[in-house]
Amino acid sequence: MAPTLILRPGTEWATAWQRCQALAPEAFRDDRVLNLWNGLWQADGRPLPATTPVDGTPIAGPPRLDAATAHHAVRASLDQHRAWRDVPLAERKAMVGATLDALAEHRDLLALLLVWEIGKPWRLARADVDRAIEGVRWYVAEIDRMTAGRVPLPGPVSNIASWNYPMSVLVHAMLVQALAGNAVIAKTPTDGGLACLTLACALAAREGLPVTLVSGGGADLSEALVRAPEVGCVSFVGGRDTGARVATAVADLGKRHILEQEGLNTWGVWNFTDWDALAPQIRKTFDYAKQRCTAYPRFVVQRSAFADFLAHYLPAVRSVTFGHPLAVATADEDLPALDFGPLINAAKAKELNDQVAEAVDRGAIPLHRGELSAGRFLPGQDTSAYVPPVTLLSPPSTSPLHHAEPFGPVDTIVLVDTEAELLSAMNASNGALVATLSCDDRAAYERLAPQIRAFKVGHGKPRSRGDREELFGGFGASWRGAFVGGELLVRAVTQGPADERAPGNFPDYHLMP
Question: Which stretches make up the Aldehyde dehydrogenase domain (predicted)?
């Protein structure tokens, strides 16, 4: 009989909250967090109730601003920007470096907040914090050459990002933007990450960085954060529907922009035999329940190889572990190294379960359906945000699972017989961020890979956003505006020669680095 699990002592939400209050009392009140604008922590906005996806219990909710206050915050950020852009680079480097030291000192608290707020397993939560810190340290070391002959933007950078990577995507971008001479504005994601971002911004503000952090609904804040004339650049990470609205707004205004949107990332298997190398990578694709922009939820498999593929795929997916990220058997046991915890909320879990049921009803063949009972949970805990792994063969064309990213632990498999079918199936979503082709013949890979509409294509290995020098972008509807990563991230938030054409995907041109 499996032991009864307990919550690891010292990891309770109440304990994490008390630690935040003790560390940053200027930002955390007894029952709420504050917004940060005009260099001050403001007790404004209307706090909304919120629950953790981990077990459905209450946590701090976002203090949502109205549109008028958001405009005041953006105007104040412009004032900060005009002062900050004249700060010598050496001083900016010192302030950002001090911020990184503070983040590193409190790394485990930031990671614990990520566990409670967005359900990341402990291993992945710590990795999110570490990637932010180490990634920005690289920019501190390299920023002199990257900004040579360049100047900051005319106004602050406005950041609107999804909830899944608050540190390694959002905080990382904010610190690099500030390092390059810009004031930065960020909207807390509606679905999670509020306390983690508030603590990170409190540590940055103490070191003198010109950071603004506000909460609110998209309808209330978009006019200020996207269309306001004070904003020098809009950086967006999220879904295609919202991204399309942002793209329309920035295009009308001719505003600098970086818009990363979702796409259906695919993994093709063609004339392939190295199955022992593929199997461990299949399990890794389930990290964080595939709730990331570079997840691989679609396998496109040569029909003649399907039996061999399945013989290695099914044991891998059956080995995936999930459950409460902080549940242990004894008080001194290490936190579990799970592949994933909950989805971002119970509503998303229901939506995904409904999509799976509908796809099966319309003809998809279930190859694997995990059981919730296989998860690691506390006795009696709310498990409504958890979805066990599911694999479907041949999702119908009428299903969202056929053409869109599920953002959950659901794989779909499509069988093909020809190279033309392979490429068509791998290009199902009008552009993607990453793709992979497992193919024994290197020459065949080199011939097929350029025809796959993804910014990065791996040969038998998954691709990711990358760190440090590695560039990142997307094709088709998966990306609009300037590409980022490495030197391109700094170029996107600074100004160079008047005739400069930034690498990116723009309405009037597409320029690869």
Answer: 45-488
State what percent of residues in the chain have pLDDT above 90.
90
Three-class secondary structure of residue 474 per DSSP: coil
DSSP classification of residue 111: H
- On whether both 296 and 173 belong to a single domain, the answer is no
* Structural domain harbouring 182: 30-262+478-506
Rounded-to-integer distance, Cα 162 and Cα 156, Å: 20
Same domain, 306 and 235: no
Note whether 159 and 174 are within 8 A (CB): yes
Number of domains in the chain: 2
296 and 237 in a single domain? The answer is no
In a domain, 389, yes or no: yes
Q: pTM of the full predicted structure?
A: 0.96
**6 located within any domain:** no
**255 and 271 inside one domain:** no
Query: pLDDT at position 227, please?
Result: 93
Let me know if residue 75 belongs to a domain.
Answer: yes
Q: What is the pLDDT of residues 324-355, one digit of tens each?
A: 999 999 999 999 999 999 999 999 999 999 99
Is the same domain home to 303 and 161?
A: no
Q: Where are the alpha helices (DSSP H) in 438-500?
A: 442-448, 487-492
- Taking 80 as the threshold, does the pLDDT of residue 237 lie above it? yes
The set of residues, in sequence order, having a beta carbon less than 8 Å from that of 270 and lying 6+ positions away, is 302, 305, 419, 422, 437, 438, 439, 444, 448
Cβ–Cβ under 8 Å, residues 472 and 455: yes
Residue 164 — pLDDT band, cuts 50, 70, 90?
very high
pLDDT at 224: 95
* Cα gap 317→307, rounded to integer Å: 15
DSSP 270: -
5 domain-assigned: no
Q: Determine the distance from the C-alpha atom of residue 455 to the mean position of all C-alpha atoms in its chain, rounded to a whole number.
A: 17
- Determine the average pLDDT of the residues in 454-472: 93
Whole-number percent of the chain with pLDDT over 70: 99
Q: How far apart are CA 118 and CA 133, in angstroms?
A: 19
Q: What is the CATH number of the domain that holds 277?
A: 3.40.309.10
Per DSSP, the three-state class of 343 is: coil
* Same structural domain, 222 and 310: no
Looking at the structure, tell me whether residues 226 and 286 fall in a common domain: no
Tokens of 79: 């004032």
Rounded to whole angstroms, the Cα distance separating 461 from 436 reads 6
pLDDT at 1: 61
Nearest to 181 by CA among 153, 141, 139: 153
Domain containing residue 197: CATH number: 3.40.605.10
